[in-house]
From TrEMBL:
Organism: Stercorarius parasiticus (Parasitic jaeger)
Record-annotated Armadillo repeat-containing domain positions: 1-163
A Pfam family it matches: Arm_2
Superkingdom of source: Eukaryota
Membrane listed as a keyword: yes
Descriptive protein name: ARM10 protein
Keywords in alphabetical order: Membrane, Mitochondrion, Mitochondrion outer membrane, Transmembrane, Transmembrane helix
Length: 163
């Protein structure tokens, strides 16, 4: 895991980055690896890939963070990327794999109400995707919206959102 994280930092080759991110993502399916990746500063390295100009690299980074977000301590570190992930949802092509990967991460990050406030500005976008997206996109957006609606503090933001 340490070598994969170092490889991500050392290379600019998108194909190598994608493969390293896929391997880290698969490794994160095991809870013991989630802690190891966090302790190796892997979350910030993977999070840094969200700024990459290559959509496939961003998508693989989002998938890795999604798997890593199943851990509360990891969520505490991943939450700093929520605003950027929301921007990825808004700027990605409609119904793209990149958009769906970002929505999946937001679904996991919105299971508890701890980070809902970071998603408020994206509510109009979520509602737009609900009307314009394919069924896969709609289902993923609905998961985020259901999580947000479970928080009474979000009620006025959800009801006042302009679409």
């Amino acid at each position: 895991l340490q070598k994969l994280i170092h490889l991500l930092q050392a290379t600019d080759d998108p194909l190598i980055q994608e493969q390293a991110l896929i391997t880290l993502s698969n490794s994160a399916a095991f809870s013991v690896n989630q802690d190891i990746i966090r302790n190796l500063d892997g979350l910030s390295v993977i999070g840094g890939m969200l700024s990459d100009s290559v959509p496939k690299v961003k998508e693989k980074a989002l998938n890795a963070l999604n798997n890593l977000s199943m851990n509360i301590k990891n969520q505490e570190e991943i939450q700093v990327y929520i605003t950027q992930v929301c921007r990825n949802v808004e700027s990605a092509p409609l119904n793209s794999d990149l958009q769906l990967a970002a929505l999946r991460l937001l679904t996991n990050m919105s299971v508890t109400s701890d980070y809902h406030h970071k998603m408020i500005n994206s509510i109009p976008c979520f509602l737009h995707l609900l009307s314009e997206g394919t069924e896969r996109t709609q289902v993923q957006v609905l998961k985020v919206l259901v999580n947000l609606s479970a928080n009474p503090a979000m009620t006025k933001h959800l009801l006042r959102a302009q679409v």
